[in-house]
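Sanity check record (used in CI):
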Amino acid sequence: MASLRAALASSQTPPELQAVEYIVDQPSLDTKNIQSALETLKDHAQTVPDQNDQVARLAAIASSHLYERLVDSILYKRAIPRTRDVEYWDSVLYAGPIGLATFAVQSAPRWLWATAFSTTSLSAPTAVLFTNLYAAVTAPLSPAFAKSSWRNWRNWRNPTGLIAAPLNVVRSHVRKNRKHALKKKHQAAEQLGTLVLNFPSKTAATDPTQALFSSLAVLKSVLKSSDIQADASVPADIVEAIDQLIELSRSKLETDPHEDLYRVPSVLIRYWPLLGVAVMGGYKVLGNWRAIIMWTKDHIVDTTVSLWKNWILSPLYKVYQTIRHDEDAQLSIMGRQSLQSDMSSLERMVVDYVSQNSSLDDASVEQIRSAVSQGDLSMVLEQYEKQLETPIKSIVTGKLIRSLLIQVQKTKVDVEVAMDGYDRLMKSQQLVVVLIAALPALGLLWWGYNATFSGRRDAARLRLMSNYKDEIKYGLGNLGMTIRSAEEHSHGPQGPLSPLYVGLLLCQTVNLRRQGPYVFSKRRLQQWLAQLKRIDNSRDIASVEQALRDIWLEFGPDLK
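Expected output for ARAD1D13068p:
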């Protein structure tokens, strides 16, 4: 259409029609602007008959806008919604007894309301009423009625038949809805295919009047098939053609008054059972609200707060204190003054012990203290060896016991010296130790972040991509079935596509275009759209089959 409008816009336009040309040269026009432009062209054609060629050219451009709006209306308001209706009824049938029972529960209020409304609006004529009464009275006398009644009685005696009877009624209702939706879908697809196959070509630009008349004929044929009272007469001149275009622009695609009964039920109808359960559950919850709050506080809130404080905040705060070099947070295995006090006690014990056995001056005392601080107890051990020569005497005098106690104190000091070394090592690696202690808290925080943000987002993205891949494979499968059906109706793969199958293929490729960006990268998406465009531009079955095979070969690995 854009190329046709560009070709038609190549000729000179009179000044009084330049405003109309500016309007119709827009990429897209709504119905109101189309009608306004056509009204202006009609008035100009009546007042200035000599410029009918220019008027026909602009009217042909306006008709192309009307053509496009009709294509969009049929595609997005009829064909695609009816396709979704058929898919919904198929899903109900394929779900088996559970799906049928669920649908029956969902639709029960709607059926009851429709039944009550139809009962209150009954008004049959008296003659029809008496005819029906006569038929009801005489029917039991016929042999056919007796046979059918006996067969129905035997069926009702079967418990399985009693259970399946309501589901059979629901199944019949669903099949009826599906049949009607499929009929509407095929009707819209055929209209769409008629419009696509009769697009005005670039060659129509050489004869604007012929382009106008051909577009008008196609529009009238499509709207006539939609039960719209379109004028079937052939226009005699440009003015009459524009007048018919104005009437067509004012008409709308009529809808079946009972079409809502065959569409996908509304969200309220489908989910009112869950809504009722939620309301009843909410009522029960409100009745025990205080007990639920107490249980939640005791078992969930307190546990969560304790976990947060003891296993997350506390380890992280210790890491913070270590980095700040807080003296109160220093790791320590033993007290700071413990080693010093034990060392001083050992020195005094050794000095007293040695001074009792020999006289010491101040220099000797300092020398002994220095030796003890270095771990040298040779002066005590020399006396200890002499005491072992006379153990009983040494025990009675207490010297041997005293020397043993000094050695015990020495052992205690040695242990504390070792512990002090280990304590210094821990203090030098305190940050590492605290970080290891905080690993559970950090791991818990990381897990919570992934579960809340990153993990859930990635999982949702992968799940969404998987769903769209399934939708694309389902759409390609529908394309294959549509091609096989077209081949059966045309008695061979070399036959042309009828308007019905052109419209069906266009509906399916539109859905595939919408799903492509969720699965393919930008570069692959361009190739995907190019392959779908091949299908849209194909007018014979063999070309569509080849394009579909190329799609499976090129994009099949991406859809696994």
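The chain is about 80% helix and 0% strand. If this sentence no longer matches the regenerated tokens, the check is flagged for review.
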